[in-house]
Amino acid sequence: MKRLLSALAVTSCLLAGLPAMTWAQSLPGVTLFSGVKSENQLPFRLDFGGQTNSTDRYILRIPAKKMKLAVAQFAITYPDYYQGSFDTKNVEVLVKGKKVPLSEVKWDKDGRVIQIFPEEPVPAGHKVELVLSNVQNPAFGGVFYFNCQVLSPGDVPLLRSLGTWIISIT
Fold first, then answer.
1. 10-residue block means of pLDDT along the chain (170 residues)?
2. Which H helix or E strand runs over 15?
3. What is the C-alpha separation between 26 and 28, in angstroms, rounded?
4. Global pTM value
5. Cβ 43 vs Cβ 58: under 8 Å
6. Closest by alpha carbon to 46, among 34, 36, 61, 32?
7. Which residues of the chain form beta strands (DSSP E)?
8. What is the pLDDT of residue 63?
9. Burial class, 94, CB count within 10 angstroms (exposed 0-12 / middle 13-18 / buried 19+)
10. Computed from CA positions of residues 54, 50, 63, 153, in that sequence, does the dihedral angle turn out positive or negative?
11. Would you give the DSSP letter of residue 105?
12. What per-residue confidence (pLDDT) applies to 158?
């Protein structure tokens, strides 16, 4: 009887862990050997699991500690082997959970960059989320380094790096 009860207890613990494991697949997890220092890795979430050849929503986060200056432009660059597509009409910038009005979103397919221009500069010191909805994931999976660069108002017109999102599509 004791063996049966302990087997049931172990089985129930394993089954209770399954939803948590599938949810965790849409989060970045731990990256051991990426070539990107941990302090330069940015957090993100893929709302629909990052499956190949499917539609997804990328929530690319920038922690408040990385936002040292106000931002007039966000630029997201990605590698040439990423063959997904982006919907510029479905891009949002959230600061403290509130939408920021955007003046323009440009996707340069040849230059592999998405440029996001808020109407007003995003203030320094706040957590920012760049939400890319209706993204078509590539047909072939892999690990893709999306880099975040920003331009501050009144700054020398050179983009400066804030970090990298290491996105895995399976």
1. 46 42 42 66 96 97 96 97 97 96 98 98 96 97 96 84 96
2. helix 2-24
3. 7
4. 0.80
5. no
6. 61
7. 44-46, 55-62, 73-77, 91-95, 98-99, 102-108, 113-118, 128-136, 142-151, 160-169
8. 97
9. middle
10. negative
11. E
12. 84
